From TrEMBL:
InterPro entries: Cro/C1-type_HTH, Lambda_DNA-bd_dom_sf. SUPFAM superfamilies: lambda repressor-like DNA-binding domains. This is Cro/Cl family transcriptional regulator. It comes from the Bacteria. GO terms for molecular function: DNA binding. It comes from Idiomarina ramblicola.
Length: 89
């Protein structure tokens, strides 16, 4: 399922719902991601200043993949080269 993440509150809510569906408490989910319970709580509540790296680790631990939808332009080929990404994925 693809969902548009318009702000930190939406991302945190998505993470919380997925965590709960996996029957994980915040402590366990945080340990999978290398984060403490305080971070998990702040992240799920949409705190706008959480660390991006920790947020990405948390999402990954929950099985949530993050993609960036880059508009087609002259720089898309350069981004493809830099990241090694397949722009058709």
């Amino acid at each position: 399922m693809l969902l548009e993440a318009k702000n930190t509150k939406v991302i945190g809510t998505i993470a919380k719902v997925v965590r709960q569906q996996q029957d994980l408490d915040q402590t366990t989910a945080g340990s999978f991601a290398g984060c403490g319970i305080n971070f998990v709580s702040q992240f799920e509540n949409g705190k706008p200043t959480v660390q991006l790296e920790k947020a990405l680790n948390m999402l990954s631990a929950l099985g949530i993949k993050v993609y960036l939808d880059i508009p087609e332009s002259s720089y898309s080929q350069k981004l493809h080269e830099l990241t090694g990404a397949n722009k058709n994925e």
